[in-house]
């Protein structure tokens, strides 16, 4: 009898396996589909490498967006934060000479431009976090306002012009496999934050039941501030990678980037109902966005239709998530 029960408990559950790794099967399916449709060109090593490099900024920000959505919030300002940080970091990474954004600024060590970029991102994220934590403004409204303000500041600082002539030491950050290495390191670090720290446990607790979290002594306001500051910092890292890769800072960077970030996060299994989300799922979701972007581009599909496809994916992911919650 006990042997039978033991076998029953250890029996491989095919249905559970498919539900757990369905997102991975979807990724593989898209890769196979686009490989067939492009007659093998999609699966070329260089194309796959470029794909991951292109989505690195999306993946980096998605690691933070995950916390916002787990706690039933959202950050619509990440694209504008990228633009704002981009022009700040580029201003301090410029080589001395005519046309510099800050006249008379001597050549600065690379770490100075990186530090200024991170501070700028933390400033934006911290401001959003304060609006949510102190003034109790809903995340949607707070980040919508910051989305407009941050891009406005980026254009004011640069008069709407790109900031170029950046130091080679800085632009090297965005070349080769460096963006991929940065993404992987941050994914590992954020996995640790979400799964092995008190802050991470508090994120899931607030998302699962905010009232119960308050009763247990968790400061919801303080954690909201931390979450949106963290998102600002990750958006700053993404901006640094994007600026270095394009060898220019630009106030137009990040337009509609929040759409890709939210899509990657949601299709990666992070629930708008709160309390659910994994780093590995978000990373697979990021790769799916990259595969769709590159695959549709190689097939000559208009960028406008690509936006329609991504919008449909978000809606589908939410419908699936709602059905899962009803079953629970």
TrEMBL record:
One Gene Ontology cellular component: plasma membrane
TM helices/strands, residue ranges: 20-37, 49-70, 76-93, 114-137, 172-194, 227-247, 253-272, 279-298, 304-320
UniProt organism field: Arachnia propionica
UniProt protein name: ABC transporter permease
One MF term in the entry's GO annotations: transmembrane transporter activity
Protein keywords: Cell membrane, Membrane, Transmembrane, Transmembrane helix
Taxonomic superkingdom: Bacteria
Protein location: Cell membrane
UniProt xrefs under Pfam families: BPD_transp_2
Main localization (coarse): membrane
Topology in membrane: Multi-pass membrane protein
Stored InterPro entries: ABC_transp_permease
